Amino acid sequence: MATLREIRRRISGVRSTEKITKAMKMVAAAKLRRAQSAVVSARPYSRKLSQLIEHLAARTDLDENPLMSTKDVRKVAIIVVTADRGFCGAFNSNVIRATREHIGSIFDDTEAASNNVALFTVGKKGHDFFSKRRYEIAGDYSGIFHSLDFSAARQLTSEVVKGFVGGEYGRVDIIYNEFKNIIQQRLVVEPLLPVPKEALSNRKKPSEINYIYEPDSKTILDALMPRHLEFQIWRSLLESNAAGEGARMAAMDNASENASELISSLSLEYNKARQAAITKELLEVVSGAEALKAAG
């Protein structure tokens, strides 16, 4: 049985941990509000851009666009979006597991995967994991969530588009956590390049308004597609950032509750041990008094 001093030391340690987890929860809550606001603000632009591309795609031969043409190349590029920090439950491990499963669904053996997969890791946790395995890290974007800026999405898009158009990659996929609410994220595995024609879902029903495009719809579509990809990646980063802060907030809240329960349990154990010690001392005093009385 633990001594009273050991129990007091454990209670003190757990209380210190509880203070830290509560502070981390408050920090995550503040960051979540900003991240959630950024996601909401990005949605109107995303909707309008998608509507414009759908309208243009309905009047253009999509097979002529280099970002939609299929490449006869075996190598695959995957953008893996994790967080820079832990303490967010299964947020990072879910993305890592989904990435490994996705690679396994494309290539049968590990050697083929290591030779034909190029990873663009966004977030320190994903980079730390895959850099220790036999995977090619084509791009490392660790630390960008400290000050998330659109230039990071533009640079990442430029790298993957250059590799795809240049024939280095046959396809580009992205894996990230999509923000749904504070306690729930949705793991997303979706193709980026070639741009799936199914994504332009409304091209079978073009708008009744027949806009006049200058110089022409194909030229404008070719100019907008890179912007569309940039914004897709930017939205993925915003979604992942908000989802990560939500997961961290929930994890710290659970940790604080567990610490509180543990403190209650240790306090009860401490009171029982203290009561047992007092009872033992009383028995010793009474026994000593009885022995003196019998001797006298």
Description:
- By secondary structure, the chain is α/β, with parallel strands linked by helices.
- It has two domains: 64 residues, ATP synthase, gamma subunit, helix hairpin domain (Helix Hairpins); 217 residues, 3-Layer(aba) Sandwich (Pyruvate Kinase, Chain: A, domain 1).
- It is built from six helices and five strands; from the N terminus they run αβααβαβαββα.
- The protein has a five-stranded mixed β-sheet, with helices on both faces.
- Strand 2, helix 4 and strand 3 form a beta-alpha-beta unit.
- Helix 1 packs antiparallel against helix 6.
- The longest helix has 79 residues.
- The protein is elongated.
- The model has no long low-confidence stretch (mean pLDDT 88).
Low-pLDDT segments, ≥5 res:
none
- Strands side by side in the biggest sheet: 3-2-1-4-5
Total number of strands: 5
CATH superfamily of the largest domain: ATP synthase, F1 complex, gamma subunit
Number of helical regions: 6
Question: What fraction strand?
Answer: 5-15%
By CATH, the architecture of the largest domain is named: 3-Layer(aba) Sandwich
- Total domain units: 2
Mean pLDDT over all positions: 88
* Main sheet properties: 5 strands, mixed
- What is the helix/strand order? HEHHEHEHEEH
Determine Rg (CA atoms, Å).
29 Å
Tell me, what is the CATH class of the largest domain?
A: Alpha Beta
The separation of the N and C termini measures 38 Å
Q: Residue share in helices?
A: 55-70%
Task: Examine the coordinates and then state which fold CATH places here, giving the name of the CATH topology of the largest domain.
Answer: Pyruvate Kinase, Chain: A, domain 1
